[in-house]
Amino acid sequence: MPLSAEHKERTRARILAAAGRVFRRQGYAATAVDAVMAEAGLTRGGFYAHFPSKEALFAEVLAHDHGLIRMLAARRARSSAGWRRQTRRILGDWLAPDHLGPVREGCSFAALTADAARGGPEVRRAWGLAFERLVGELLRTPATDVDQALAMASSERRALAAQLAANAIGMLVVAAAGEDGLLRTAQAVTRAAVLEQIDRLLAS
Amino acid sequence: MPLSAEHKERTRARILAAAGRVFRRQGYAATAVDAVMAEAGLTRGGFYAHFPSKEALFAEVLAHDHGLIRMLAARRARSSAGWRRQTRRILGDWLAPDHLGPVREGCSFAALTADAARGGPEVRRAWGLAFERLVGELLRTPATDVDQALAMASSERRALAAQLAANAIGMLVVAAAGEDGLLRTAQAVTRAAVLEQIDRLLAS
DNA sequence: TTTTTGGTATGATAGCCATCATATGAAAAG
DNA sequence: CTTTTCATATGATGGCTATCATACCAAAAA
Q1: What is the DSSP letter of A164?
Q2: Average pLDDT, chain A
Q3: ∠ at Cα A164 (A162, A166), nearest 5°?
């Protein structure tokens, strides 16, 4: 037998992470498979042993490479006050005006949503599932997991959480296109509105 | 002398309009110059007699091809009640859930903002100026033009208008990526919020 | 009608891209 | 140590892209 199976798995994960970085930086259409592999410290040879196509890789990135979801999933507070504080901190940092550069580099929702919209069914499904998980994380409490939170929430609460998520992502997408003060202040206003919304959402 | 100068101008406008359509449909990076010229009923030969580069064409599209701005600029009401009604109708149609397809095809803000964010300085400047004009149109009243509206508005009102615009554009960008009911309801909620905001903005 | 002018078409160039075919080499199993 | 196995590297292919050079041909001016 050749190299261990876990070695392959680790390499696959490395390619996935590299793809996320390069896609977010340059966009999906403008990124070559060679560039992804180079970012991972490899050459194009092995790529198709791990992913059937560039678009399948994109779908995989959209399915799993979301720092915001990871941070929300890592909340550990027991009391609902602490939970609310943690959530506020994560969303507040995420929408902080001076973090726009890093966020854009690091957040797939902010950087890749528009690219996902032009993808095939597989890509769009992956994005949709990730968005749903984000909404679930926003609805979640210390006592429930993501699926429970989604299943138990009223359709009204689900819509509010989805609106919150869409507003925040949309604000980052728009803010990334302009650098004038107008957008910086708009981002600050949106940030305040989002923090208010999450309070209302987690208070009930 | 060869063909009239106005003929060249008309051809240039035809290329510009064709570019807008194809860019919005396929995205900037995925669109070839040949495809733009074919959409305009021409071949690639004459392109560089009209625009110095593909990216310059993109900047030109971002500077001028915004249906939303055109519709807002066409408002003609005298009374502030009629003005508010017209504005509500334009924004309401723009954010109507069942218009998402056509809007995405027709609205450069919804379709091209993310692409503009990855463009060069020229592209970003063109997008920024268009966004500013959109904000000016939102602040405008029957008595003022865009520049006056921008100059006279308090920075607070400017920020509110920019937030409104960013929320609406962002919602459309996000909604274009998913087709589930979650986003459809979120879009409806955002639409209601935007209409409320524009009322507040135009009431003062 | 002839000439001139410049917008447009055709053809070319140089480079890039996604994907595949083959070669290589390292490590695990014997 | 030898053999096997497969992840990865190298090289190739067919196609696409932005841009340029040249050729053509309509129309305006003479």
Answers
A1: H
A2: 94
A3: 65
For residue B118, count CB atoms less than 10 angstroms from its CB and return exposed for 0-12, middle for 13-18, buried for 19 or more: buried
Decide if A96 touches B, using CB distance below 8 A: no
Scanning the structure block, which residue is given the tokens 């990124």?
Answer: A31
pLDDT digits (tens, 9 = 90+) for A30-60: 999 999 999 999 999 999 999 999 999 999 9
Scanning A27-180, the segments in alpha helix (DSSP H) are 33-39, 47-50, 54-64, 67-73, 80-94, 100-106, 108-117, 121-139, 146-152, 155-177
Q: Which residues of chain A does B175 touch, with a Cβ-Cβ cutoff of 8 Å?
A: 166
Of B30, B173, B190, the CB nearest to A173: B173
Q: Which of B131, B132, B185 sits opposite A155 (nearest CB)?
A: B185
- The domains found in chain A, sorted by start residue, are 5-53 (1.10.10.60), 67-203 (1.10.357)
pLDDT of A2 over the 70 cut: no
Phi, psi of A152 (to 5 degrees): -85, -25
For residue range B114-165, list pLDDT tens digits in order: 999 999 999 999 999 999 999 999 999 999 999 999 999 999 999 999 999 9
Let me know if B31 is exposed, middle or buried by CB neighbors in 10 A (0-12, 13-18, 19+): buried
**Angle at the Cα of B98 from the Cα atoms of A131 and A112, rounded to 5 degrees:** 30
Strand C lies under 7 A from the Cβ of residue A71: no
* CA distances to B81, B83, B204 from B78, in Å: 8, 7, 16
State how far the Cα of A65 lies from the Cα of A55, in Å rounded to an integer.
15
